[in-house]
Amino acid sequence: MDGLIDELLDKAAQVTPTIEWAEYTALYDLVQRIRNEQDGTSLSPLLTGQKDFSKFNAWFEAVGGHVEKVEIAPFADSGNGLRAREPIKKGEAILHVPLQAMITSQAAIDSDMGIWAKQEQMLMRMPNVLLALFLVRELNNRASPWAEYIKVLPSAYDLPLCWTPADLATLKGTSAYTAALALFKHVARQYAYLHRALRNPSVADLAVASHSFTFDDYRWAVCTVMSRQNRIPIGGTDEHPEFALALIPYWDLLNHAAGSITTVHDCATHQTEFTAMEDVPQGQQVTMYYGQRSLSDFVLHSGFLPSGPDTHMRTHVGLARADALFQQKAAILARINLPNAGDYRLAAGDVDPALIAFARVSSAPKEELEHLAGLNDDLLYELLIRSPAPDVDKRARAFVATRCSILSAQAPPAVETGANMRQKLALSLRHAERDIILSCVQALKAAA
Fold first, then answer.
1. Cα–Cα distance, 38 to 33 (Å, whole number)
2. Among candidate residues 363, 373, 8, 357, the one with its CA nearest the CA of residue 195
């Protein structure tokens, strides 16, 4: 078993510019061999997914949590959520969750596990990994102060990280495809690295024994953190607050709907408060706005595709390093605070102005670059961001329109008969992103 996991670490730790399908499938096959060896030893399917919330409710009240006018209930299209027991007015306080009820990355640092974690660069640089490992530790700890909370967490997640290659292949042509492959590689590397560290008995005593640290339990914890975490202030000052990642009981049962953010984290009282973002009739679901996330982020981290006025996608563009003018272009982009490669927002008929500015530099000939390099920062910003010359702006919009046309050429196929829910979600994402791209092409051509 250890040999298989070491092989996984060696393969997943290899640095490549982008992960390709063959690399992903090789890692997937190796992970499957490890999962087969560990079959029947994971705790997450056995100790989570509890349907009776009575003990959880009692625990929540005992640790200082407070709930007003809502109850936990199942919903056909979104799983468990919160239902109004009586009419709720917009702005009414519904939840108060004290810090001691939350599972946080700071709690991990403050625990015995923190003695070792503070020496691990991966855990200190990546609080999401720290929180996921701590969650596995508490899953294995029958005396955990969060045991009743952990019991009602989902026992499984239908996120792309858990999909089969046949399902994941359906994401090809979307902005989520490469990200999904990379995520699997990252999680495989994290698991193998941590498993090797946990073979040290002194480390295992502080965290979890390696023989109890299964891939399925770690992936379950990663999915829990990905889909439910929130970054909260836990101390410091107003000018220099200190933050931690947190799993917030009860609050994490709120499902998404378009609206506004109505959650406040109060450092003075050390609690999170949620107020209703709209009037809710008795018997209806109380929802929360998850914030401005791209369509692919929703699919990757939450497992669904939202609707609403702020739906958007992100497209990755970058300067070609083989371009003889790469250095000059990169230097100018840096002066207007743009990277030489990055993700830019596309919404229905609305192109990120920063992408247009990037295109103005990327498509500039040598003589123009030399002219721009000689300008002071204020004038450079004025010419590239605020008031570009008409010919420069036309050229940039044509550049972006061509980029969008290439993306839209990857036309999504019709949903095949027998396609499962994962594949239908992936194909719906392809359709949604293509609609956004085509609307941006039309807008760019109209403005040219």
1. 9
2. 8
Separation between Cα atoms, residue 56 and residue 48, nearest integer Å: 12
Tell me the CA distances in angstroms from 247 to 100, 251, 424, one per residue in order. 11, 9, 30
CA 286 vs. chain centroid, Å, equals 23
Task: Write phi, then psi, for 411 (nearest 5 degrees).
Answer: -65, 130
pLDDT digits (tens, 9 = 90+) for 109-141: 999 999 999 999 999 999 999 999 999 999 999
- Distance CA(292)–CA(196), nearest Å, equals 38
Helices (H), 140-291: 147-151, 165-168, 177-198, 201-206, 215-228
- Contact of 427 with 170, CB cutoff 8 Å: yes
Give dist(CA 151, CA 103) in Å, integer.
Answer: 13
Amino acid making up residue 177: Y
Q: For residue 96, which of 75, 69, 135, 132 has the smallest C-alpha distance?
A: 69
- The pTM assigned to this predicted structure is 0.91
Do 332 and 365 meet the contact criterion of CB atoms below 8 Å apart? Answer: no
> Taking a C-beta distance cutoff of 8 angstroms, is the pair 176, 82 a contact?
no
DSSP 294-355: -HHHHHHHHSS---STT-EEEEEEE--TT-TTHHHHHHHHHHTT--SEEEEEEETTEE-HHH
Neighbours of 257 (CB within 10 A): 17
pLDDT in tens, 193-247: 999 999 998 888 888 888 899 999 999 999 999 999 999 988 777 678 889 999 9
Angle at 45 between CA 43 and CA 50, to 5 degrees: 110
C-alpha span between 249 and 102 (Å, rounded) = 6
For residues 80-91, one letter each, b for 16 or more C-beta atoms within 10 angstroms of the residue's C-beta and e for the rest, the string is ebbbbeeebeee
Give dist(CA 32, CA 34) in Å, integer. Answer: 5
User: What's the length of the chain?
Assistant: 448
